[in-house]
Amino acid sequence: MRSKEEINGVLLVDKAPGMTSHDVVAISRRALGTKKIGHCGTLDPLATGLLILTVGRGTKIQDLLMSEDKEYEGTMRLGVVTSSQDADGEILEEHPVPALTPADIEAALAKFRGDFYQTPPMVSAIKKDGVPLYKLARQGREVVREPRFVHVYSSEVLALRPPEIDFRIVCSKGFYVRTFAHDIGEELGCGAHLSALRRTQSGKFSVQGALTVPELKTRPREELLERVMSLPAVSRLRGA
Length: 240
What we know:
Helices cover 27% and strands 34% of the residues. It has helices at 21-32, 62-66, 102-110, 133-138, 177-188, 213-218, 221-226, 231-238, and strands at residues 9-15, 37-40, 48-55, 70-78, 80-82, 91-94, 114-118, 127-128, 131-132, 148-161, 164-171, 192-202, 205-206, 211-212. By secondary structure, the protein is α+β, with helices and mostly antiparallel strands. It has two domains: 4-67 and 204-238, 2-Layer Sandwich (Pseudouridine synthase), CATH 3.30.2350.10; 70-201, Pseudouridine synthase (2-Layer Sandwich), CATH 3.30.2350.10. Strands 1, 2, 3, 4, 7, 10, 11, 12, 13 and 14 form a ten-stranded mixed β-sheet that branches. Strands 5-6 form a two-stranded antiparallel ribbon.
């Protein structure tokens, strides 16, 4: 059996809904029997999908893996604006949803492709004077946020089911998909929020074949160790 100190690499997990990314890390620490585990790119509790865990010396490449582009599939609900820009927030506004054509939706999506500046949401982990914005939001405070330079490589509608729109998007690091849904709602004149989100890819890593949380909780440690990608294997996959 490999010793705990020898666990180094990357483990791909398919995060379940209703849990935080830190919950997945805690479960993984117990399952693998090692404390040195980090994660690349936080997923909100309502989101599911690919969470890249770095183990042991793998934590040294965490920033490198976090910087890579991401692919998501999501659902936005038109006509309802929330405080967090997703389904976990309080409803702030409700508006009738106009009759929208695929061309209307495509025109709105087209305005948020390529390079542009995106203003992060108040309910986020970004810090203002050392305090996370979400803590200020809980106090009912709103502060000016510095817009971030982001890039959307592609976006498309997967299904138009008024008042919901299923979509796919490929974007740069630091992009807020719930802000994207909010902004699309503003563009369409009826408001919107993100009602579902799934990360399907990050860099060269795909959610296909990733360990589920139930597997992480129930599989024997030796089986889980076999799923940890070695650092040389990670380097080959990335083409580094």
